[in-house]
Amino acid sequence: MATTPNLRLRPKGDTGLVHDVTPKSAGWTYVGFKLHRLSEGGTAGGETGSDEVCLVLVSGKARISVDGQDFGELGERMSPFEGEPYSVYVPAGASWRAEAATALELAVCAAPGVRGAYAARVIAPGTNPRITRGKGSNTRYVTNILPETDPAHSLLVVEVITPAGNTSSYPPHKHDTDNLPYESLLEETYYHRFNPPQGFAFQRVYTDDRSLDVAMAVEDGDVSLVPKGYHPVATVHGYDSYYLNVMAGPHRTWKFHNAAEHEWLLK
């Protein structure tokens, strides 16, 4: 009997490095994701090596530097539900450091990079203004932090707010086949938060042949992995959903394929 893969990761504790997804741990090739929870005065940092990194201030404020270049104190929102984020792009072959000026949730989104290709930079709120996607009970609000139109080698980063009772990543779509210009192969992680935090949502990750078919309840602070297949999310009454997506693959473009039986929903 085939085993069901564990695609839902709970945080490892309440403080410090609570998520550490690597290509090796996920069983794939491109995407890495870390999440630091720091108290005021706490620090985090690292060497990017062969990866490029996008530091996303999910909540809180921090002083961030890259290779000794001080970008100053960044951050405005104290919750991911309070507007758009500050982020910092860190190229391959660089070192970075963050010192929390308040309680801080700092996401480290990683994918393969090229040394010397791009400079470190701050991605301020409004760089790519929030857009509304979908309609009715499929409405959600999307902020493209690092879209394919902005400089980077392979990394794509986006965050989504889905109001209570709505669906997102829906109608079901996939991006697991290297078949451009029709579909791109992109691995993906979701970092989930809820408002109020005792909320939850449901996510299903499945393929057409159902060789992969995992349904899971995701709670505040969870990470879900999407190695392939469709991956819709459904919120429940009373609880807004936030998730931060990291995507990467052999080509830096988001071309997805909708599940044919559900495409009528787009008409």
TrEMBL record:
Gene Ontology terms, MF aspect: glucuronate isomerase activity
One Pfam short name: KduI
Residues that span the membrane, as ranges: none
Record has Isomerase as a keyword: yes
UniProt keyword terms in alphabetical order: Isomerase
Gene Ontology terms: biological process: inositol catabolic process
Database matches in NCBIfam families: myo_inos_iolB
Identification of the protein by name: 5-deoxyglucuronate isomerase
Species whose genome carries this gene: Devosia geojensis
Lineage: Bacteria, Pseudomonadati, Pseudomonadota, Alphaproteobacteria, Hyphomicrobiales
